[in-house]
Amino acid sequence: MMKILIIGNMGYVGPAVVKELARRHPDAILHGLDNAYFAHCLTGAQTLPERHLEKQFFGDVRKIPEGMLEGYTAVVQLAAISNDPMGSRFAEVTREINQEATVRIARQAAAEGVKNFVFASSCSVYGVASGDPRKEDDALSPMTDYAKSKIGSEEALAGIEGDMVITSLRFSTACGMSDRLRLDLVLNDFVACALSQKKITVLSDGTPWRPLIDVSDMARAIDWAVQRDAANGGRILSINTGSNQRNHQVRDLANAVAAAVPGTSVSINEAAAVDSRSYKVDFSLYEDLAPNHQPQMTLQDSIQGLIEGLGRMNFQDADFRGSSLMRLHVLQGHVDEGRLTDTLTWADDRPSGAS
Which CATH number does the domain housing residue 158 bear? Predict the structure, then answer.
């Protein structure tokens, strides 16, 4: 029987992962561990996503106690300071959580007999990548603290010895509806703009390339990785995770959203400087190794899911970039109100007398 720990399960991707694993493996034991930064950020959920778990633990990934991972067949590491603005604002914490904690947890998992370790990495490690779509063995050019933390983790994970199968899923840019929706992602932002303002403003010249993957398809990939055998790709594997059909230019994303929301105009900044985040990605290896877990959601599916989900929320906020649907705003709000320290530790977790 599988026993799986999903670390960082109370974010944007986690609810989809929990639901997918519960659906595919009804007899599996599923546990979650999260520091609850965003636990309150539910978006139109009819039931609590964590109801699919047997246990929900709360704690800081930087402080997982020895022995906690014993008995699990798989550990999924989703916990991260999860985008470029947050990575810039909390650069040191990004390195601590995204990289140092990830590697420490993986080493602990290997020592405690875990069979599969799954790390949510990112295609952003390719940075500015003109020319042919990037393959796994192509040069890396991480441009941000977030991307640097991901590749730093991958490199350290590759040095872990033993029998544990380690899969680093280099995910495309996430999109789609979630029980804890984020709007600080390109497609999600465009849909929110269309619904609340009937106007999409593209800050770049619209030419940058982005591969996209729906959160439901991310969950499918994680289901593959928690069961992956070393004979299928090697004991240590970093793999582009997405679909060759979902490499899009930003202007095409904006126009697709406008087509789905009648009356929406699109404004593109033709004079913008070159965007440092532009890359096409080759997903042929993932297609070869995981034929039964390929992405199912088209661009139109993801857009429609967001339209319907935001509709259930009665979403009309034209100023959503200052709301709790933006992860940096949530973290900064916790800090400003004294709930979190600047190191993103809960203030009431500090020892008595600590400053």
Answer: 3.40.50.720
